[in-house]
Amino acid sequence: MHKNLDDIRQEFLNFFKKKGHEIVASSTLIPDNDQTLLFTNSGMNQFKNIFLGIDQPLFKRVTTAQRCVRAGGKHNDLDNVGYTARHLTFFEMLGNFSFGDYFKHEAIQFAWELLTDCNWFNLSKNKLWVTVHICDSASYDIWTKQVDIPNEHVIKIGNNTDNFYDSDNFWQMGKVGPCGPCSEIFYDYGDRFQGGPPGSLKEFGERYVEIWNLVFIQFNRQSNGNLLSLPMLSVDTGMGLERITAILQGVHSSYSIDIFKKLISSISQIIKVNDDNTNRSLYVIADHIRTCSFLIQDGVLPSNEGRGYVLRRIIRRAILHGKKIGTNNIFFYKLVSPLIKYMQYLSDRLYEKKDFIEKILLNEEKLFEDTLKKGLKLLEKKLVLLKGNVLNGEIAFDLYDTYGFPLELTKDICLKRGIHVDQANFDQSMLTQKKIAKESNKFYVISKNISLCNVLNTFVGYRDLTCRTQTIALFRINKPVNKIYAEEEGIVILKNTPFYGESGGQIGDSGQLKTISSLFQVTSTKKYGEIIGHLGVVNRGAISVGEEIIAQVDQYKRKNISLNHSATHLLRAALCQVLGSHIVQKGSLVNDQYLRFDFCHYETMTEVQINTVENLVNKQIWINFPIVADMIPIETAKNSGVVMLINKQYEKIVRVIRMGNFSTELCGGTHAKSTGEIGVFIITKEFSIASGIRRIEAVTNNTALSVMHQYKKLLQDIFTSTQSDNKNILNKIHEFKSRCQKLEKEIKHLRNQQVIQESLSFIKEIYYIKDVQVLIKQVENMMLKPLTNLIDCLKRQLKSGVIVLINNKNNKISIVVSVTKDLIENNRINALNLVRLIINTLGGKGGGKPHFAQVGINNIINTSKISTKIDYLLQNIL
Fold first, then answer.
1. Which of 164, 266, 395, 601 is most deeply buried (CB count within 10 A of its CB)?
2. Beta strands in 392-530 (DSSP E)
3. Cβ distance 520 to 541 under 8 Å?
4. CA–CA dist 630, 612 (Å, integer)
């Protein structure tokens, strides 16, 4: 057997280092320069701006081992994992890149040497096959004339349509931009596997496996489809580490390589199933624990949208496969430890956040368990009322969309009962939801991107809160106008403005725009792309395009907003110190009244932690650090460890806010001049807003003082009403609580006595149907708890029988049915069957269990008629 996976990775990097390549570290799984991608899915992602000509390369030759996830968007292998030998959602892409240095000749020679030379991978030349684009004669000639490969193993691949670029051997970044032909290298596993060579009718078998793709970027595709030659010819290659490891270790499946064999063995022991290396569910679980752990490590958290939704789906898919092979215990989080043990080369990244990753997975698994219970309960109700053997796809979709209940599980449960789920109806419901979401988003985009006639304005509000400027555009009802009159609402665009446009969680400024004869009251300020718009109403006169105007920000409001914004920076830094380095900002709101900060954390903060954070922030306030704003290059900011949002794209020159050595962040918002201006900081709330996401609300300065005054008044009112003071208030509260508990016990006792008395009075109305005791009784306005207590008392006295109570509460009728154990065991009758007959006869909805069931009837029916009909049903059953 060849070296292990870590050795093979290093051997690849060492080979290209000897060929003059710089080894560049893997980027994160969250692309930092491409908002079109959910996850990093190839080695070239981190170099995209170089290929586009936006950035200049630091090195002409580069090699990487890039961590990738393909579980969403264009490249989505999620549904194939576990069902093929090679598909993985998490994998490593080995690659070598040339930025205007070498091209086809060197790239092909490098690949052939690494794969076949006895000092490197030493693969048999007869086992390798190659494809080239039908029009790429240069690559074909290199392979057939300069490389020691059998000519019949080099195959020209044509176009799928009449378009030159529509071919399996033509790579393109998108519909426009860099592109070029590629040459793919395949490995032949031998005739023990089915399938033909690439390009043949049988190419989709398991015999020939693609291991390396050499992309030659030589064209720039235009919007009209034309291909223009690029001045800089580049190379981008990608080889799956797990695939080449399988070949070098003499196995056919990625799940049979060293790391997966060890991981699957540990998983089998943890979830107590047989160590069967052909178990598809074990494949899925092993793949998914890798994906989930690295996604969380890189800052993705489970949620209901975007990357977080994909992560949640992967976690739940793994858990369902665990249940499929027989484990009902919580297990997924336990797999992080063996993963760290066997990943070796990458384990340090995971080890630093091991506890955090485990807690996120544990919380998510508990949440999913609750979801499954709710979903099962709801599905059970739907199946009880089902007429026929087909479950409406809309019901399945509602369970999926509202409660996160997987369609696969709904299908499994229905299949066991001989029920078919209407897949077409489910798919239509999914399409309808996507269409609604798309239309909603379209409306939002239209409303935000008002046609602003290509105007530009400049923000001067860091320095000035008042300035003389000029109106350059006006809008009413999202349409451009030349004038806005008194009492009309509109949007004003100024040449220069001191008003801060809502951005980065900070609300926009308010204030006034004034001329000698007019006054425009600015109620809020928003950004429309790069344009700052002033929303408000004309209080006096009229505002015209092109006139001189004085713009004046509400200074008091701006001051309070700035204080709260600066406090938010201090809060984030304090949270990192107290809770850990895993704290990542997930949202914020800064206005003049309070601040709100959302962050990833797996559990409720303790009172001690909250107090510690509060004290840390106040300490920085009282030190009175100057708050300094600097403009520096983005690369300098990144290298110096400045805090920035992971998924945000930044300009080349960025604004950095520093508060002593305590907080340094990228920020475009407005701030106090020094931390001392904040005065005091008080946390008012800490709570959860989503799984793994907490929210803190806090106040500063005068608002904080007002909160303290309110607490002081509240405490004084409590002292007065309890006739106590700060010395004996706790004793008084304990005394009141004890007295209240005593009274509650007495009330409960009296209610029980009342129930017993009522049950005794009902006994004389019992009658027999055949040999079974039956009680059908009407009651008025009873709550469910007293009603069930009454039934328990009656059953104890009856010993054997059927009890039906018809409860008329606020003109809504509910029927409760209870049957004793002996009648159920003797197959005489059960409560659930009787309720189903009642629903078929009287209508309504309900359900339950054999010993206790209930039904609600929407139509107002005379209760005596209900009694008669239930008696008739019982006569036929018993």
1. 601
2. 420-421, 458-459, 466-476, 479-481, 483-485, 489-494, 496-497, 511-514, 519-528
3. no
4. 30
H or E element at residue 69: strand 61-69
Burial category of 536 from C-beta neighbours within 10 Å (exposed 0-12, middle 13-18, buried 19 and up)? buried
As a whole number of angstroms, the distance between CA 130 and CA 213 comes to: 10
Euclidean distance between CA atoms 846 and 515, whole angstroms: 69
Q: Which pLDDT tens digit goes with each residue over 817-870?
A: 999 999 998 888 999 989 889 888 888 888 888 999 999 887 666 777 888 888
The CA-atom distances, in angstroms, between 71 and each of 29, 40, 78, 88 are 12, 10, 5, 9
- 805 membership: H or E segment, kind and range: strand 802-809
b vs e for 849-870, b when ≥16 Cβ sit within 10 Å of the residue's Cβ?
ebbbbbbebeeeeebeebbeeb
pLDDT tens digits for 158-206? 887 767 777 888 988 767 778 899 999 999 999 888 888 888 877 778 8
What is the CATH topology of the domain spanning 558-710?
Answer: Threonyl-tRNA Synthetase; Chain A, domain 2 (3.30.980)
pLDDT digits (tens, 9 = 90+) for 516-565: 999 999 999 998 877 899 999 999 999 999 999 999 999 999 999 999 99
In our burial notation (b when 16+ CB lie closer than 10 A, e otherwise), range 784-818 reads eeebbbbbebbbeebeebbbbbbbbeeeebbbbbb
pLDDT at 439 over 80: no
What token pair was written down for 542?
Answer: 């009229």
| Phi, psi for 439 (deg, rounded to 5) | -65, -40
Q: Which residues pair with 664 in a beta bridge?
A: 658
Nearest by Cα to 184 from 198, 196, 166, 172: 198
The structure tokens listed for 106 are 């060197």
Segments making up each domain of the chain, as ranges: 5-256, 258-371, 386-446, 458-553, 558-710, 761-877
Nearest to 613 by CA among 599, 592, 628, 625: 599
What are residue 91's DSSP bridge partners? 68
CA distances in angstroms from 313 to 368, 407, 698, 810, listed in the order given: 10, 12, 34, 44
Is 562 within 8 Å of 668 (Cβ atoms)?
no
Structure tokens at 701: 């300065």
Phi, psi torsion values for 465, nearest 5 degrees: -105, -5
Fold of 458-553: Elongation Factor Tu (Ef-tu); domain 3 (2.40.30)
Handedness of CA 473, 477, 481, 484 (dihedral sign): negative
Determine whether domain 761-877 maps to CATH 3.40.1440.60: no
